[in-house]
Amino acid sequence: MDKTRIDAITGLRGLAALLVVYGHTVSWFSLPWKINFSGEIGVMVFFSLSGFLMAYLYLGKKFSALSVADYAISRFSRIAPAYLVILLFSFLIYTYIDPNFVYDISSKNILRHIFFSGNVSVFWSITPEVEFYFLFVLVWAAASRYVTRVDIAGLLFLTFGALIFLSYRDMFPGTFVGAKLHYFLFGVIAGIVRSRIGTANQDGKAILVLHALLLASMGLMEGGWIALPFASNKEFYSSILTAVFGSFLVFGFSFPSALGKFFFENKAIVLCGECSFSIYLLHMPIIYVCHKFLPSPSPLQMVLLIPFVVLVLGLSWLNFQLIEKPGARLIRFMGSAFKQKFIPLLPLATRPQPLSVESETR
């Protein structure tokens, strides 16, 4: 299987983004189909996907200065363009146009958001994600030392540290990676296992049954037929059970099947997956504008649901095409120039295999 592209995973990321949008719009549109923890389920998938893809794409590669540089450029080019542009516009709108804007980015907090450590609205989830990117470099280094030198000291140290973080995860603020570490770690474990399973001898019927069970579980859970045993989103996020389910969901749909292809490899959901970061960042300002023009409950709200969805998806696609893709190309170009000039000066700067970012998550 081509490791640079798993369409079903991209589609699953698209579903996660749509679940977050649904969770934030259900009350304003007075929708009769309230999904408990729909937004949290979407974020759960995002976190699990990050851990899975980091391990799946990188842990089999040689750890070196060039490898880490490629990894950093790949990660930064994926999230920085849309994030920084929307952050800047939010600052300008909040400061000079509308002091009630949903993203209250001001001179007091813009610096911490520039460094990917903010907590305003949906920006909060990007903070532990970026912190995990740094943490993964340590995981990668320890795994590389274990493979090349049979040195387990680094792995034991990381394991011990992870156990401490997991034990105290309820005490950490939600923007700290320690509070969400279980999602990333179980995703990493799923990615490691998946990278060691080939595609030649897979049981197609077993995978089909697995996908049917996963889809049924998601449908029952999101439809309210399965009552989730959490009194708050804090309990949801701190649960080991949700972390295990999230990683198993990603792991399961990384295998091909007719069901997986139908639900997560169709063009519409894959396109949503490709634009998922823009969807995630733009839907709240669009909801805010809708509130501003229709501030009180109105029968028109249900009528406006379809135009609202079209607007979110259309603006997200434009942002993906005009901001994300050109910005990523510019960052990769600058990163390539940096590598050629500075990386050869570092010790052990061996050239790794080329990396692709096409199937990586936010």
Question: What would a concise description of this structure say?
Answer:
The chain has 362 residues and is mainly alpha-helical. It is 69% helix and 0% strand.
Structural description of this entry:
The structure is a single chain. The chain has one domain (7-345). Helix content is 69%, strand content 0%. It has helices at 7-25, 38-58, 65-97, 110-114, 126-149, 153-167, 177-195, 204-222, 233-238, 240-253, 258-264, 267-274, 276-293, 300-303, 305-342.
Are there runs of 5+ residues with pLDDT below 50, and where?
Answer: 351-359
Helix fraction bin = 55-70%
Instruction: Give the distance, in angstroms, between the N- and C-terminal Cα atoms.
Output: 22 Å
Give me the Rg, rounded. 21 Å
Structural key phrases:
mainly alpha; 15 helices
Layout of helices and strands, plus pairs?
Elements: H1 7-25, H2 38-58, H3 65-97, H4 110-114, H5 126-149, H6 153-167, H7 177-195, H8 204-222, H9 233-238, H10 240-253, H11 258-264, H12 267-274, H13 276-293, H14 300-303, H15 305-342
